[in-house]
Amino acid sequence: MRLLLFFLLNEPYETIVHAAETPWKSKLNQRLKIKKIDCVYPTGLLSIAAYVKKHIPDIEIKILDCNAMINQLAEQYPEGLLHVNREIFFEKCVETVADFHPDVIGFSSLFCSNFHDMEPFCSFLKHRFPKCLLVGGGHLPTAIFARIFSVGSNIDAIAFGEGEVPMLGLCRALQNRREREFLAENTAWITAEKLQKNPDFHPERHLLENLDEIPPFDFDMLEFPELYFNSSNYFFVIDTKQDLREIFIFSTRGCPHHCVFCASQNVHEHRVRAYSTERIKQDILYYHKKFGIRRMVFYDDHFLVNKPRAIEILNFIAEQGLIAEIPTPAFFSLTPEVVGAMQRAGIRESNITIESGNENTLRNIMHKPANLKKAEDAVRNLHDAGILAVSNILIGLPGETPESIEESIQYLMTTEINWFQCFVAAPLPGSELYDICVRNHYLDGDDIFSMDFKKCVIRTPDFTPEFIEWKVYEMNLRLNFINNYDMRSGNFPQALKIFERIIERVLPTHAMAYYFAAKCCFELDMREKYAHYKKRYEEMVGSYPFWKKWVDFYQLSPLSETIEPGPGYK
Questions:
Q1: pTM of the model
Q2: Cβ neighbours of residue 200 under 8 Å, at least 6 residues apart?
Q3: Hey, which end of the chain has fewer CB within 10 Å, N or C?
Q4: How far apart are CA 351 and CA 354, in angstroms?
């Protein structure tokens, strides 16, 4: 038996290939021809594959990540992919696994931005493999299965919630040639026929209670496995100048909290299940010895839910001479003891997801299980350990007003947070936020699946989508550049480091990054760099009206022609 698994593109194909047309706002690949698409381990598919293989040893499994495929394709076409339409891209994906003749094809879809490519890709696969079962799963299909089937679909079935147990059951049924009966009977699988017979049909999650039953991942199942060993390019808060092989580890599933914008519980439930501590230690040693992996990236919904367990794991990593990362730890769990273990494990930067600087928004709209005093304590604990503090901030939630958003910004301008990642609130299907928006008719327009964390699709009596999109960028510039904490506190080397990261990894056309990098170089008497960044700033402002508009908005003073003796921050 052969199982072929696909991981869909993180963003719409057309968005990726046309990104070079807007270089002032699009993060581009190294050739500056398509949008930069990071290859992050498809851990869900790897986990499903490992579990199925454990129980059906003779099954053959391949995993193709479409994000890896488009990066490979971009290398083959250095002039860009504008002449490669979506159907040709689908064909290239299938050509990559042409020698593999599957009995069942599965795909995973996580994001709303997958939606527009999902059905065309499934239609293509069904045409190419008409005798294969085509099944899907992941966060998005779990949340919108009724919508997918209501408009007609080439998908034979959708697995609700986690995929290990449902996929194993399906593969066993295929062995016995009773897959159609299995899909009709099993409550974790959703089909068009079930919904036609019973429009109120509600599937059940078939969760794996003991996560230790999942074997370590087999990277040989992946096409292009070498592309994943530096997945943390995806994260702003990890210094990728350290060229270390790494792996993403989900040591727990589920989160006990009820943040309004989170949809994870729709797949995993709120109840937390965890790999045993000994199993995590074994996996760390296995991945290090077998693949040379030195950085362990814990991407749990709430890695610190059990603080003693987390500290034990971090201390073990330190004892082995390895490095840990926790890209988004819960700030209310960052006690001095936890932060000390993070520091010993090599963590030097951390994104504490505070989400808002308005106490009412934080507690009564977002339902975060903490307050701003806890956030201040977390930042202080991180700084005491020499760890840089970054925070995600969201705006655009029903209940917020322009006044409450401005109040949040005013508070954040007084904090000691080194950098902010500012986003538009996205009403993810499966979240309480989505339900609120549907119930109150706040979703703006017909195409809510165009949403991402920059595009607003929420309209309330208090704000428009256009206001929120403008405000989130204004907030980004004000907090990170105009009112940069490290520049305010005189830590110009640290400020320069982050501005240069923006230029090198995020947006090489970022005029504000060049301007404030030049300001730092002025203070540090770095004359060559000052001249270079000054020139680049002036080129960006001269080339892109977008940046000229913001320079005029903030009334930025012209940079000095040269650094004179006795520099001082102006």
A1: 0.94
A2: none
A3: C
A4: 9
